[in-house]
Amino acid sequence: MPLYECTIIARNDVTQQQVEALADVIATQLEGEEGSIQKREYWGLRSLAYRIKKNRKAHYMLLGLDAKPASLNEIERQLSLNEDVLRFLTIRVDAIDEAPSAILSRKADDRERGFRGPKPAGRFDSGRKRGYDDREEFRARDEGGERPERGGERGPRGPRSELAEAE
User: Fold this and answer.
1) Residue 49 pLDDT exceeds 70
2) What is the structure's pLDDT at 32?
3) Residue 36 in contact with residue 127, Cβ under 8 Å?
């Protein structure tokens, strides 16, 4: 019989046990027609790339199926009628890989990494902490920049404008 991989995306309102029960229903349908589930992986509750039927997260499950095409059509029909299933995708494969999928192996790698040491300084942070007087504008003023006196050029409302001088 041909081999298939079916990925099912279920609503986040359902529990993991209900998603497992959905896979059990598929298994019982296949056993009645001489098929079987060779691989079953629950990927967990994951974020969706975009909203699907007002859901931002969903339960993912991968099934490796050994089934006849007619029984697969019936399974897909049942999945499309189920309100808990948001999306499903079934593809034909040459062989079902017994090793964990890339999703599960990546999760295992994340757990093994652990602590990597202190974080380096930010992209624009040189590590030197500057005080209030170390800023460039204050250094330029203190090194010889001229400060206007409180009389001559300044009026009660600030420096004179060119329009006031033209009058």
Assistant:
1) yes
2) 85
3) no
